[in-house]
Amino acid sequence: MFNKKGLMLLLAICLVLVAAGCGKNNNEGNSGSKENAGVSGEKVTVNFMHLWPEGVSAGQNKIVNQIIKAYQAEHPNVTIKQEVLDNEQYKNKLKVLSASNKLPDVGVTWAAGFLQPYVEGKLFTPVDDLLSGELNGKFVSGTTEAYAIDGKTYALPLEFNIAPVYYNKALFEKYNLEIPQTYEQLKAVAKTLSENGIAPIALGNKDRWTGSLWYMYLADRIAGQQTLSGAINGDGSFMDEGLLKAATEVQTLVDSNAFVKGFNGLSNEEAKSEFLNGKAAMYMMGTWELPNFTTNEDIPKEFRDSVGFFKFPTVEGGKGDINSWVGGPGVGLFVAENSAVKAEAKAFVEYFVTQWGEQAVTGAGVIPATKVDTSSMELPQLYIDLFNEMNQASSITLFADVQMQASAAETHLNMIQALFGKAATPEKFSEEHDKAVSEGK
How far is CA 257 from CA 23, 68, 104, 195, 263, in A? Predict the structure, then answer.
């Protein structure tokens, strides 16, 4: 979680932007085995594994290829070899490769607790030298800090995200529904949609972290942001009355058929398609999905124009603030510690991050982790509105599974699926969390 001082500095920087305008690595076959191989002019290959497939991440995929093409043109001795996987495939492969110490030269990682085991296993190399070079002062405050462990930075962030509830304006208009301001209103909206044969909420909880977003917001709105953060970091307890109520409300939503049928067996991509196809009216997800609702021409313009968003509603009697968000720094790029071409891998990361910022805004509608002057850019209204919401945030709580240490995060995700599947009571859910967090301290 960001403390208030750090958050206010982040928001101040963002407001300036709005005012401006809105073992051995897999390098067998490389002739260079020294760390400075690419710099010396020898032909080298840098293996780059990422999670932006063509189609579901069309905007990002296009930008990645543009950056690589430009980099190779400027560095004719370097070949960037891509391996592209979707989100869950990527996470699984990263675990497999780390077990045999065969990570790609450059890859994607998440912050905080997700990063920790890779750092402890000496799999990622520090990139602080890049922060003192051309990228010095280029990042939004609070972003690189999320990738620092024991005073060293192990990845460079690309995005900053918050998680709104997107909704289909056409479906809301068809059934005379208004944006819910309270949780009771949200449940009433879901009831009307369900009675009319429309799935209220698209949720692919096979991936588990998707359900965590719903629990986190209920916990935030009922128990308050500090109580939720305290339980996650072990200073408090998930047995808190408000947090228990949040877990209970998850099952209330399940019982009222608020989620798309079969949600616990659907992947996020499968559930998202229900929303994109107009079969589900709402979809909670991070702002990394903005491209699909603004710039992705593979998705019909009629649908993109029909997507709005709202903040997770307040809960009557709850301690939460409607301007409190779940989110934080998005994915970042790491360089493998045992890369045979580490210097060239770092040079590519530096170039990639520099180029990504403005291109991600204009070409994909992604909120970048680097400072970008938007004064001359024409941006979609949905992007502008969410960017402004980020500036007005009273707090931003980092995704629970990213905050937690690896073993506790796995417990959290498993218990999220059990809670949504009604295979665990709210009490069991909370007890297992406290136990996992305590063991990880």
Answer: 50, 45, 43, 10, 10
Using CB atoms within 10 Å of the CB of residue 318, give its burial: 0 to 12 exposed, 13 to 18 middle, 19+ buried.
buried
Helix/strand/coil for 223: helix
DSSP 254-289: HHTT-B-TTGGGS-HHHHHHHHHTTSEEEEE--GGG
User: Model pTM?
Assistant: 0.79
How many angstroms separate the most distant Cα atoms in the chain?
A: 67
Check residue 31 and give its pLDDT: 32
Contact 147, 115 (CB under 8 A): yes
| Tokens found for residue 218 | 């209920």
* Structure confidence at residue 372 (pLDDT): 85
Q: Which residue has the tokens 């960017």?
A: 387
Q: Tell me, what amino acid is at 70?
A: A
Q: How deeply is 223 buried, as exposed, middle or buried, from its count of CB atoms within 10 A (0-12, 13-18, 19+)?
A: buried
CA 243, CA 253: separation in Å to the nearest integer? 16
Q: Which pLDDT score, from 0 to 100, does residue 406 have?
A: 87
Segments of the chain scoring below 50 in pLDDT:
1-38
**Residue 117 to residue 109: CA distance in whole angstroms:** 12
Q: Helix, strand, or coil here: 228?
A: helix
Strand partners, 329: 160
What does the pLDDT look like over 348-364, one tens digit per residue? 999 999 999 889 888 88
> Residue 40: its pLDDT value, please?
55
Cβ atoms within 10 Å, residue 296:
22
**Kind plus residue range of the DSSP H or E element containing 59:** helix 58-74
Whether residue 123 contacts residue 105, with contact meaning beta carbons closer than 8 Å, is answered with no
Count CA atoms closer than 13 A to 403's CA, side-chain side: 21
Q: How far is CA 114 from the centre of its chain?
A: 12
User: For tokens 């770092």, what's the residue?
Assistant: 346
Looking from the CA of 292 toward its CB, the CA atoms found within 13 Å total 19
CA distances from 77 to 74, 86, 385 (A): 9, 29, 43
